[in-house]
């Protein structure tokens, strides 16, 4: 059985959760943690070179050891070094979206056509960005996968987490079409690559075997639909929590805020439907189904209610003065809308407000939306 190492890039809460359960389910599978800074080595030593995971109701926390670690100093070339670091066949990327390309650049030469790269991140557009900046040669680029996790996990230390809420992990291939006039030979290469990466014994199989991750394999089409559902919720809830400085439940706490949600859904819905394969207009196949504006609004409200006490990651980042992922959420909607010839001035306005750390009242945001819409129509 294939026991090629699985590398984890990004040791935030989700990265640690995946690493922990991989070792728990399959102790013989090598797991390598890729640190983005050498300072984490001291934290790792203080943690006993282990990841600790607690699950409410299951007694004492459990610790897993046996990980290999790489830090930037390990990857720097040294005079007289005996051998380069090995190729990476299996890579889980759990960094913030905006850090992905920079974090992967030092690993670029270790990734190739036989590599699988699983993106466990918010937002969309990372795979396209990697293809445009790092892996421009279609024949030699790695296979992209994406995962959507609904597990609840929070950190209690640099290498300790609490798995507070169970939820599925949906995994599927991401197909990046950067050549609309793809030849038959290109399609054949893609099919051959698909067969290689879908073979038993790959990283994906290890993840599916990790019962506590509740992973399930989806077709590329079903994965894209799931990504767009999550994008819709993130694009409507997260930026408004950042602008209003509120918890998730409060994005619909007043009639004015509910109207803002409706305005965002009315603008974002056609883009989502177009990305699913419809034209985004009133006659496309998804207009009256799962991706109708009414269903999308109801789904966003349900997410906001279920996660009502949460502070969104976008608001947390904004309050801490960190870069947010708004470019890969509302920014992605705006950029794809422009490519499709659809208007998205409200999404663009929210991107600008979040980036400038603006706070506003409901009336001020409605006024901004109105101005943006008039400018777009002129």
TrEMBL record:
The Swiss-Prot or TrEMBL record annotates one GO molecular function as: NADP binding
Alphabetical keyword list: NADP, Oxidoreductase
InterPro entries assigned to the protein according to its UniProt record, in alphabetical order: 6-PGluconate_DH-like_C_sf, 6PGD_dom2, ApbA, Ketopantoate_reductase, KPA_reductase, KPR_N, NAD(P)-bd_dom_sf
The lineage's top-level taxon is Eukaryota
- Give the residue ranges for region: Disordered: 175-199
The EC designation for this entry is 1.1.1.169
Pfam families per record: ApbA, ApbA_C
**Coiled-coil blocks:** none
Ketopantoate reductase N-terminal domain segment(s) = 6-173
The Ketopantoate reductase C-terminal domain, residue ranges: 223-357
- The enzyme class is oxidoreductase
Q: Name one GO biological process term.
A: pantothenate biosynthetic process
Q: Which GO terms describe its cellular component?
A: mitochondrion
Family label: Belongs to the ketopantoate reductase family.
Query: NCBIfam families of this UniProt entry?
Result: apbA_panE (TIGR00745)
Q: What is this protein called?
A: 2-dehydropantoate 2-reductase
Source species of the chain: Gaeumannomyces tritici (strain R3-111a-1)
């Amino acid at each position: 059985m294939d026991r090629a190492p699985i590398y984890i890039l990004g040791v935030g809460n989700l990265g640690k959760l995946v690493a922990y359960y991989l070792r728990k389910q399959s102790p013989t599978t090598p797991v390598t943690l890729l640190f983005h800074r050498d300072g984490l080595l001291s934290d790792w030593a203080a943690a006993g070179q282990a990841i600790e995971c607690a699950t409410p109701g299951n007694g004492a926390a459990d610790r897993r050891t046996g990980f290999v670690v790489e830090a930037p100093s390990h990857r720097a070339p040294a005079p007289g070094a005996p051998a380069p670091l090995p190729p990476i066949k299996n890579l889980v990327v759990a960094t913030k979206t905006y850090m992905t390309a920079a974090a992967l650049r030092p690993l670029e030469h270790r990734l190739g056509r036989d590599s699988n790269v699983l993106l466990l991140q918010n937002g969309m557009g990372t795979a396209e960005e990697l293809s445009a900046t790092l892996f421009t040669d279609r024949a030699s680029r790695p296979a992209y996968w994406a995962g959507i996790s609904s597990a609840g996990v929070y950190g209690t230390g640099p290498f300790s987490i609490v798995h507070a809420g169970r939820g599925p992990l949906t995994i599927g291939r991401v197909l990046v079409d950067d050549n609309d006039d793809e030849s038959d030979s290109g399609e054949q290469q893609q099919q051959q690559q698909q067969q290689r990466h879908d073979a038993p014994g790959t990283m994906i199989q290890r993840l599916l075997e990790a019962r506590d991750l509740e992973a399930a394999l989806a077709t590329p089409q079903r994965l894209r639909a799931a990504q767009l559902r999550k994008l819709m919720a993130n694009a409507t809830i997260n930026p408004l929590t950042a602008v209003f400085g509120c918890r998730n439940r409060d994005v619909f706490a007043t009639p004015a805020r509910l109207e803002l949600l409706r305005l965002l859904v009315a603008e974002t819905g056609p883009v989502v439907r177009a990305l699913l394969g419809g034209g985004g207009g009133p006659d496309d196949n998804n207009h009256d189904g799962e991706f109708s504006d009414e269903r999308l609004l109801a789904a966003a409200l349900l997410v906001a209610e279920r996660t009502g006490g949460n502070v969104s990651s976008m608001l947390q980042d904004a309050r801490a003065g960190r870069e947010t992922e708004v470019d890969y959420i509302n920014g992605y909607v705006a950029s794809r809308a422009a490519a499709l010839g659809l208007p998205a001035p409200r999404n663009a306005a929210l991107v600008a407000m979040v980036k400038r750390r603006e706070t506003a009242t409901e009336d001020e945001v409605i006024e901004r939306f109105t101005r943006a819409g008039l400018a777009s129509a002129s």
